[in-house]
Amino acid sequence: MQLLTERLRIVPLTLPQLDSWLHAVPALERELGCRRPAPPCGEFGRIVEKQRTVAAGDAEHYLFHTFWLLIERAGNEVVGSACFKGAPNADGEIEIGYGLEPGWEKQGYMSEAVRALCAWAGQQPGVRHVTAETAPDNLASQRVLQRAGFSPCESGASRWRRECP
To answer: SS in 3 state form for the chain?
Structure first.
């Protein structure tokens, strides 16, 4: 499975692909036909490891736990990643997180990816809202969320929300 946008191929990683991303990047490059998936390290690496563990234990909601690589279609280069931070809660909410590789900022890739991921999520059973959290001073992330149809939950808030159709 993958999502296609005008400029991106958005690929949810399987458990073996998550392992490759963490420990064997060349194997992941070959399998996905992409270039430069920077291995997650430091705090981000610990987040990916945790999500991998949760994904392994929840096959029914796997796509809400894995990471999705954002691959630029023209050059097959990994420009970033995104994830949902768990299955829908009782209120039908899921949270999205995302990040771009250096050099790919301010080109609209993340807005494109977040819109596509939210559209996919809105078609899944039990999903009514997508939320996101960003620092109040992270204007670039706020612009991504605005372009993807999110609204702040309150004035100056770090929580954002988008209704799913």
So the answer is: CCEECCCEEEEECCHHHHHHHHHCHHHHHHHHCCECCCCCCHHHHHHHHHHHHHHHCCHHHHHHCCEEEEEECCCCEEEEEEEECCCCCCCCEEEEEEEECCCCCCCCHHHHHHHHHHHHHHCCCCCCEEEEECCCCCHHHHHHHHHCCCEECCCCCCEEEEECC
